[in-house]
Amino acid sequence: MSVPSSPDTDRPDRQDSPARSDGFIRGLSEAIGGPLGTHAAANDRPSGVRRGFWTAARIVLALCCLVLVLHYIQKSPCRDGDWGSNIQYTRFCYSDVLALYYADGLSEGKVPYQEFPVEYPVLTGIFMGLLGLPIHALGQRYPEMNQGQAFYDVNALVLCALAVATCACLLSLRRRRPWDAAMFAVAPMLFITTTINWDFLAIGLATFGMLAWARRRPVLAGVLIGLGAAAKLWPVFLLGPLLLLCVRAGRLRAGITTAATAAVAWIAVNAPIYILYPDNWGRFAELNTTRPIDWGTLWYIGRWFDGKWNSGQPGDQGPFQWLSDHVEPHLNNVTLGLFILCCLGVALLIVLAPRRPRFAQVAFLVVALFLISNKVWSQQFNLWLLALIVLARPKWGAFLAWQVAEFAYFTAFYAELLGAGGRQVIPEGTFVLASTLRLVTVAVLVGLVIRDILKPENDPVRQTYDDDPDGGVLDGAPDVRGFPFGRRRVDPPAPAEPPPPVPAAAG
């Protein structure tokens, strides 16, 4: 069965050029003579850069591969597992992948969930076992083999392949804006966090699911998003905004189909483990319930400031110090309540926005607000937002500010870990400053996406596409504003005019 074509079909005169449409890139381009001129731009369409092998998409994919190779080189000092003298912190090369190969018993041939509990959702545990158990078997046959190094290398290969596939999905979703995917491909955080944990398993599945939804395959989209949620929790957050968008567009059947198939896929993965090993299956939920305030979160920052005015002793505690001492149930209830309030705010935004928001915009908002409000914000969690912000707001200025803040936090985090081991490298206040900058830059991105939703004429994607290239059945669908408070149809906008020609640069 053929996939229905989008009402907003590709047109050569609507190809985006960042040097003309993005103020930050336009400013940088002045150093090399300014944006492409009228004749050059016309000759380059629709390939995006030039005719021949090196199209924009291939350049972006090559950049992504180059960054991932550099990532592997950067992490190589830790590959052999010889972490004496805290090399994993001084060389910034720590990885849960290698650490948990030994800590979780994979190096002894133990089967995840059957013989030991796993601290991650089921699909991630299965992934660990599928790659780890064959490595252990080979290690038994070839004792001279470094099992931990082999396990890391195999995982790095698969995770990097998922990162490249994610980049390819972004290119497929933005055929008129191929340079948007370069934000993902050259992101500093892709360079230093790709293989810290198994997050790209969920990121890849969720991005594939968004591509399937954009291609109007709601069942496949649900299966992929459900599998993503079985690897990490956050992909399930995509479903709530999607359902509300479908209600506003009168396409609820497709949304329910996706949500239902996601639930079926999640249950299909989890049910066998839950039935056979219920105690080990529940380890993930147990850890999330009992886990204290984590490094660099809003609650960590607040507790540090509390410590400036209060001793922290019973009877002399600030609110964040008190919550830190009462994780169950008070801190858990506060973080959950705050996230629910954030979700209600996103729901009102979807309902009352002057024009139906794009799927990627509200997906980014929900995941970003979860990180801001949560008590855990691990260093690699920023990868959850990377593909989403490229789809939600492909503007380089604020994006690079966020990436600089993330890089500063990353380096400060490792310095703080060294200090926790008795070797102070930086004052704790410096780490709190880096944590605050990360929090503020993500909050700024949230605010900018909300502004684009409230003023859709400022949305860079809608300056290239008539509606929502990620919307699938929502793309070009009728728009009704104000449900359930009173329905008012929003007339579809006229197709956007192509940008005016730019005179060719002198010389």
UniProtKB/TrEMBL annotation:
GO terms for molecular function: hexosyltransferase activity. Its main location: membrane. The chain crosses the membrane at residues 53-73, 120-138, 150-173, 185-213, 219-247, 254-277, 334-352, 359-377, 397-418, 430-450. One of its GO terms (cellular component) is plasma membrane. Coiled coil: none annotated. It is a multi-pass membrane protein. The keyword Membrane applies. Residues 1-21, 460-507 are annotated as: Disordered. InterPro entries: GT87, UCP010361. It comes from the Bacteria. Belongs to the glycosyltransferase 87 family. This is Membrane protein. It comes from Spirilliplanes yamanashiensis.
